[in-house]
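The instructor's notes for this session suggest beginning with a concrete chain rather than abstract definitions. Hand out the sequence below and ask the class to guess, before any prediction is shown, which regions might be ordered.
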Amino acid sequence: MQSKLVVLVKHDKDATYENVIDVIDEFLITQVAKYFVVDPGLDPMETAKIQEQLNN
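After discussion, reveal the predicted structure:
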């Protein structure tokens, strides 16, 4: 059974590609159904798109 948890991943300037892949691997292991890698600052259009995806 997949989790209904939704995670937004915000990286900082010190994050590496390997860090992001490690986090995504953990999502697969823990069966997190929805996750998004987003920039720390979102404009209103991006926020609306994420909200739309969360409602699906």
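Then share the key points. The chain has a mean pLDDT of 83. Residues 3-54 form one domain.
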